[in-house]
Every structure is written in C-alpha cells, then in structure tokens.
C-alpha cells in the first residue's frame, strides 16, 4: 500500500507541477511577511513576540486549510483550481485559525517548560527536569505525526469539525503507527527538499498533498472494516483479522485510474 501511495503522490505532484508552484507562492509571501512581523514584534518584548508568532501561524494555517480542498480534489483524481481555494477560505478560516493558534500556543508552552526543566536539571541536577523534558519531547513528536492527518480529515470525511479532527488524528496514528511514521519521514524529506527550493516545490502545499493522498488511501481500511463488521460484529475488535487488509483489492480502482505510470512517462510525457 505504501508503495502505491508513494507512486500516486509523485504522479499527482508531477501532473500538477505548475499549480503547486503558483499556489506555494501564497505561502511564501505569508512566510516572508511573518518573518518581518515577528522580527518587528521582538523589539516590543516577549508578549508581543509570542502574540505575533501565534497570529502569523494562524494566518498561515488558514491558507493551508483552504488549499486542503484542492489537495482532496487532486487525491481524488480531480482538477484543482484557485477558485476552489478562495471559496474555501470563507468556510474554513475559523477552523484554520483555531488550529494554527492551538499549535503555536502548544509550541510556546512546551518551549517555556523545556527551558525551565532543563535549567532545573543542569543547575540543580534534578532528574525530574530531564524526565519531564523527555516526556515533552515525545509529546511533541507524537503530536506532529498525528497532526499530519488533521487537515486531510477535514476534507476527506464529512461532518468533521475541529474536535473530531483532533480526536481522529490521534486515533488514526495509534491504529497505524508504522505507516504514520513512514509518512512522517516522507514529509520530512519533502520539507528538506522544500527548504532547498525556497519552499517553491513541493512546498507546504505539496506536503499537505502527501498527507491527503496517504490518508485517503488509508481510509479504505476503515471502509473495509465497517463492511466486514456488518456480517461479523466482533470483526472490528479482532486485531488479527483487522490487520489482514486486502490492499490489492481495495486499491484496484485507484491503480486502474492512475494507470501504468513509468519513469519515462514523467520525463517524456509527449511519448
């Protein structure tokens, strides 16, 4: 399943190359603007700096949420559009802002807590400081991996509000730990490439597309479990049976829609 996700995600990114580049320009402008706003706020003290950081993170999150509608379209073999991006802004800005404020607030709290407990450990030799610091580090890592699914969940499933997306993000992570870690490593690699290309490609939107593609395919597993549970109510709680997912069967339609995309077709699409 992971191999097909990787192939489909690369194909989707390649087929929408110019759209990704143009749409990433919006995020680049927001990132540059955020840099100058945060830098200016730094001269007004810690509270102003943190407030500016939270506000800028919230605005960037709104942009990502709006582009999530296009990511879902691309993942579903449909064409994206800037019209969809701007129309989505009206309906997602509150959720996007709330998500950005939550993430930035947690980062600030953890930053303050880590500084305090590390000082407690190095200054007084208190092991509690080291233990709490390690626990906070694991909390951040698990949250980062789980939050890969937050925006995709908002668009791939109906009736998913802020609380449901938050809850389901962690449920999917704990139910698919190894897959989630693999996806996280792919997204880290995409982020490194994005830094090299100054966020032009694949950029933040490309990383969001990666998570959306991965979750869309992974959700087939839960549709299959629900279908099997109709005949066997105990199926959903039997982990051995749940793990025997017939991925070839579940991905058959997507494989047919994607087609036999070879490397030569990417490099020489006119052939």
Task: Explain the overall architecture.
- This protein is mostly helical and 271 residues long.
- Helices cover 82% and strands 0% of the residues.
- The protein has helices spanning 2-15, 17-42, 46-75, 82-124, 127-146, 150-156, 162-175, 177-196, 203-231, 239-242, 247-250, 252-258, 263-267.
- It starts with a helix and ends with a helix.
- The mean pLDDT is 91.
Principal-axes geometry comes out as globular
The largest sheet, given as strand count, sense and whether it forms a barrel, is: none
Class based on secondary structure composition and strand pairing: mainly alpha
Low-confidence stretches: none
Distance between the termini: 28 Å
Rg over alpha carbons: 21 Å
* Helix content estimate: over 70%
> Which oligomeric state applies?
single chain
Could you state the order of secondary-structure elements as H and E?
A: HHHHHHHHHHHHH
How many β-strands, per DSSP?
0
Q: Quote the beta fraction.
A: under 5%
Number of helices: 13
* Average pLDDT rating: 91
């Amino acid at each position: 399943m992971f191999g097909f996700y990787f192939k489909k995600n690369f194909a989707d990114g390649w087929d929408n190359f110019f759209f990704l580049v143009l749409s990433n320009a919006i995020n680049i402008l927001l990132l540059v603007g955020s840099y100058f706003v945060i830098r200016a706020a730094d001269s007004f003290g810690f509270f102003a700096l943190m407030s500016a950081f939270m506000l800028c993170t919230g605005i960037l999150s709104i942009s990502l949420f709006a582009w999530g509608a296009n990511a879902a379209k691309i993942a579903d073999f449909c064409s994206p559009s800037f019209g969809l991006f701007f129309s989505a802004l009206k309906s997602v800005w509150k959720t996007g802002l709330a998500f950005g404020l939550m993430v930035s607030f947690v980062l600030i709290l953890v930053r303050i807590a880590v500084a305090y407990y590390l000082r407690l450990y190095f200054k007084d030799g208190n092991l509690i400081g080291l233990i709490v610091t390690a626990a906070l580090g694991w909390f951040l890592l698990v949250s980062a991996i789980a939050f890969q699914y937050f925006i995709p969940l908002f668009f791939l499933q109906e009736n998913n509000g802020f609380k449901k997306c938050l809850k389901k993000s962690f449920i999917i992570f704990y139910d698919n730990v190894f897959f989630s870690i693999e996806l996280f490593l792919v997204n880290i690699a995409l982020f490194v490439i994005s830094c090299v290309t100054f966020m032009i490609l694949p950029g933040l939107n490309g990383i969001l597309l990666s998570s959306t593609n991965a979750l869309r395919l992974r959700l087939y597993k839960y549709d299959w479990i629900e279908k099997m549970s109709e005949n066997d109510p105990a199926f959903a709680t039997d982990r051995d049976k749940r793990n025997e997912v017939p991925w070839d069967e579940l991905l058959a339609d997507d494989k047919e829609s994607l087609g036999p995309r070879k490397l030569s077709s990417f490099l020489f699409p006119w052939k």
